[in-house]
Here is the input.
Amino acid sequence: MPRSIWTGAISFGLVTVPVKLYSAVNRKTVRFNQLNRQTGARINQKRVDASTGDEVAYEDLVKGYEISADRYVVIDPVELEAVEPKKTRTIDIEDFVDLEDIDPIFYDHPYYLAPGPGGAKPYRLLMEAMRETNKVAIAKVVIRSKESLVALRPMADHDVLEMATMLFADEIVDPDRIDDIPTADEVETSSRELDIAKQLVESLAGEFEPAKYKDTYREAVLDMIEKKAAGEEIAVQPEAEEAAPVPDLMSALKASLDAVRERTGDAGGDAGGDGAAKPKRKPAATKAKPKPKAAGKK
Here is the structure.
């Protein structure tokens, strides 16, 4: 059973809601240890002085911020403590905003909030009020001496509040700084190309079902590990053949649409026609559909 990693209260106006914080993810990354190929023993990492080659004791380590090549400002732990945010036990809501106004690029790590002792009724009231108004709460909280910007919202299909830590605006790279992104003036698309692209999108439309997407690489790695542990020989896969030259855009769109129709059994008419294809699969749900804004912009 999951354990809470923090306890406190949500605060908005004069209302407080006692809550417990739980991590909402259980990472499934396959982790490896470094071994000596000759002995099979694990490798220990040592802290070594780059100028002398001597190992450095933990108590002799200090923090340094590099201001130029090989020049550092040394910071004492006591000095860091002096500027740490004031430790509180509250998630202080500053604003309620529309869900569609938050670009997903701002979300970082997800958590669940459960009501603490005596908090069931105000918890439920806050959750239902946010659900009815389709609002997201933007708040600040201090956890483990670090102040975080967070977003609180009701989970779509469960009676629980989600809390996601967020990136600050100055941490988001402005996409306008990326030279490789073409502008509308630099690349023109024809109405016929757009019609077929829209038909292709509609033919692949469906409801989001998270459980159907699998980490096939992780599953393959774990299967390989299990076979090697059982003494089986692992065949090395041949290098992938080079991809064939990409056909022109219109041909690629038509071929993609025809392949989808053949797979789904939807005749749908000529791929080059002007009429929109009727999607075989059920269209995606429209509730709380976000309208992403440009990252880092208000």
Helices lie at 77-83, 120-133, 191-203, 216-229, 249-264. The chain has five helices and nine strands. The two ends are 40 Å apart (CA to CA).
